[in-house]
């Protein structure tokens, strides 16, 4: 099976990412049966398992960099991808190649009937990733949850270290005590022998995680923290405290104060895995070199062009803060925004400060969940301040071109919203170059 044929097989299975992430059946039974016939590869190596509303992808990449910098062979499983599906499965930062991915998907296809299940798109990819990590004999797998935690396909693994970055507004109907409900689902990744690294400090949900059954719990502020977090040229300069170490004046090659907070979580998680602090020189080198495509990624200057997948209100607020505080923009601020449903479009646009932008160009990603561009445009004018100029250019590539045509060298363009928008924009901009 070559990769195009393997992707045809994959696309024939229900894709929960394309159907608003609805959980079907609330059970891990399909995934467990699939993993069993593959030999339970997820038990062949220790796992650092991460969940959280925002920051889990960034934190996973930092943890992977810290572990790899310490001399380990590290598998990383993440979702969704920006440009190529191969990005989801990596070994020491290198995405799996086409032939290997095709073979892995073919292996899953071959045992699907034996397992007696029809797995979902995400379950197939998760099984393929676990199999790959076993085949290449990684020392540790850093695994990002796809949705919530308890019933996520990745939860057939038993975490040595469970990481919760935060609990925010996403994947919920926001009825009743939704924060507690979300927290309980995320707490499902905590296993009896694991160390829980808890980034969420809110008193309404932190007790849910403390009582989830971990062998020990390390909490932000009490056990680890980002003590100093300042803007630097090309990123941040941070002081981080962990249970076993104090690191001062660490350069982090990422933009946004939130990334300093993520770095503290990542350093604590790596320390929990080793049972000792990460070597200071290793930590400094890893964090100075970490790269996160699509997470406040600067892809052009004069005009400044930034890509950031801010797909929910909390992520949008972080993007707006970074855009306004980490960069000096002499000219206009131009937003290119596209969204997926059923997220609260008006809330995301308000958090982005769209009403305070100079120009908003509304677009729509290629997805059955895409919010029509005209609906995004309508939400962009709601809020305080003078209304921005709003245009509708549905195609992402054409929307980016329109923003560049409007921008002069002193302006700044932020392409944001869904990661599907950011991925399409990144591909388009690379094609232009």
List the helices and strands and how they pair.
Layout lengths: L2 H9 L17 H9 L9 E5 L4 H14 L4 E4 L11 E3 L2 E2 L2 H18 L5 H15 L4 E5 L16 E4 L13 H9 L8 E4 L7 H5 L5 E4 L5 E8 L2 E8 L2 E8 L4 H18 L5 H10 L7 E4 L3 E5 L4 H13 L7 E6 L6 H8 L6 E4 L10 H7 L9 E4 L3 H11 L5 E6 L1 H14 L1
Parallel strand pairs: 1-5, 1-6, 2-5, 6-7, 7-8, 13-17, 14-15, 14-17, 15-16
Antiparallel strand pairs: 2-3, 3-4, 9-10, 10-11, 12-13
Helix pairs in contact: 1-4, 2-4, 3-8, 3-9, 4-5, 10-11
Summarize the structure.
The protein is an alpha/beta fold and 433 residues long. The chain is built from 14 helices and 17 strands. The protein folds into 2 domains: 3-289, UDP-N-acetylmuramoyl-L-alanine:D-glutamate ligase (3-Layer(aba) Sandwich); 297-432, Alpha-Beta Complex (Protein-Tyrosine Phosphatase, Chain A).
Query: What does the largest sheet look like?
Result: 8 strands, mixed
Q: In total, how many domains does the architecture comprise? A: 2
Mean pLDDT: 93
Helix count equals 14
CATH topology term of the largest domain? UDP-N-acetylmuramoyl-L-alanine:D-glutamate ligase
The rounded distance between the terminal residues' Cα atoms is 33 Å
Poorly predicted runs are 20-24
Q: Helical proportion? A: 25-40%
- CATH superfamily assignment of the largest domain? Mur-like, catalytic domain
Q: What would you say the CATH architecture of the largest domain is?
A: 3-Layer(aba) Sandwich
Q: Report Rg.
A: 21 Å
Note the beta-strand portion: 15-25%
Widest β-sheet, arrangement of strands: 4-3-2-5-1-6-7-8
CATH class of the largest domain: Alpha Beta
- Structural class comes to alpha/beta
User: Strand tally, please?
Assistant: 17
Query: How would the global form be characterised?
Result: globular
């Amino acid at each position: 099976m070559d990769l195009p044929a393997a992707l045809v097989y994959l696309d024939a299975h229900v894709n929960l990412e394309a159907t608003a992430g609805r959980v079907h059946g609330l059970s891990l039974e399909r995934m467990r049966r699939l993993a069993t016939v593959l030999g339970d590869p997820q038990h062949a190596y220790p796992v650092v398992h991460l969940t959280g509303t925002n920051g889990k992808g960034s934190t996973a990449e930092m943890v992977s960099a810290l572990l790899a910098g310490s001399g380990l062979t590290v598998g990383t499983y993440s979702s969704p991808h920006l440009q190529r599906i191969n990005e989801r499965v990596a070994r020491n930062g290198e995405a799996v190649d086409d032939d290997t991915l095709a073979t892995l998907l073919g292996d899953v296809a071959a045992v699907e009937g034996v397992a007696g299940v029809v797995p979902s798109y995400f379950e197939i990819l998760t099984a393929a990733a676990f199999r790959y990590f076993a085949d290449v004999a990684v020392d540790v797998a850093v695994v990002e949850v796809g949705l919530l935690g308890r019933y996520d396909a990745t939860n057939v693994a038993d975490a040595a270290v469970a990481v919760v970055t935060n609990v925010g507004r996403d994947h919920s109907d926001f009825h009743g005590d939704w924060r507690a409900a979300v927290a309980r689902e995320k707490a499902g990744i905590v296993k009896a022998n694991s160390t829980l690294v808890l980034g969420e400090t809110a008193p309404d949900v932190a007790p849910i995680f403390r009582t989830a059954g971990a062998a020990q719990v390390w909490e932000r502020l009490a056990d680890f923290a980002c003590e100093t977090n300042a803007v630097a040229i090309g990123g941040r300069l941070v002081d981080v405290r962990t249970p076993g170490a104090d690191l001062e004046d660490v350069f982090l090659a990422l933009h946004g104060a939130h990334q300093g907070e993520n770095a503290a979580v990542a350093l604590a998680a790596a320390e929990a895995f080793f049972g000792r602090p990460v070597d200071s020189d290793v930590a400094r080198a890893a964090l100075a070199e970490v790269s996160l495509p699509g997470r406040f990624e600067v892809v052009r200057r004069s005009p400044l062009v930034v890509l950031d997948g801010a797909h929910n209100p909390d992520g949008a607020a972080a993007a707006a803060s970074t855009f306004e505080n980490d960069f000096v923009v002499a000219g206009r601020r131009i937003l290119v925004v596209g969204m997926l449903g059923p997220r609260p479009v008006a809330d995301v646009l308000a958090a982005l400060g769209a009403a305070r932008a100079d120009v908003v160009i509304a677009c729509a990603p290629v997805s059955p969940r895409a919010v029509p561009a005209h609906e995004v445009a309508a939400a962009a004018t709601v809020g305080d301040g003078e209304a921005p100029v709003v245009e509708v250019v549905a195609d992402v590539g054409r929307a980016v071109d329109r923003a560049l045509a409007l921008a002069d060298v002193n302006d700044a363009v932020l392409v944001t919203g869904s990661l599907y928008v950011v991925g399409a924009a990144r591909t388009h901009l690379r094609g232009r170059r």
